[in-house]
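Please decode residue identities from the backbone states below.
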């Protein structure tokens, strides 16, 4: 059965197999990529990866929410959140992949 979750270790293993770096170098490369993305996002900079998508930091204002269990109103503090918007290339490839899986190809 195929694992449905991709992890750092599976990405490192893919780099190891496809690029030819050692396992340690592959893991370091994947970690450095994630570190660079994290550094930019924590500095409120958007991260755009061509043909993949864009990570955007959005600032949300304070607002009133509701506890779904009790119905009581509670304040939700202002915060920053990361959103991801897939590129058209990624959307197209995912859609094509879904169609081929449904047809049994």
């Amino acid at each position: 059965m195929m694992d449905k979750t991709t992890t750092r270790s599976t990405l490192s293993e893919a780099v190891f197999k496809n690029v030819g770096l050692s396992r340690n170098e592959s893991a370091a490369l994947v970690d450095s990529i994630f570190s660079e993305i994290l550094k930019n996002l924590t500095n409120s900079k958007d991260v755009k990866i061509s043909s993949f998508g864009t990570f955007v930091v959005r600032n949300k204002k304070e607002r009133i929410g509701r506890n779904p269990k009790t119905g009581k109103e509670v304040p939700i503090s202002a915060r920053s959140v990361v959103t991801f918007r897939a590129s058209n290339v990624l959307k197209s490839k995912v859609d094509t992949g879904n169609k081929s899986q449904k047809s049994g190809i």
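Observation: Residues 7-43 form one domain.
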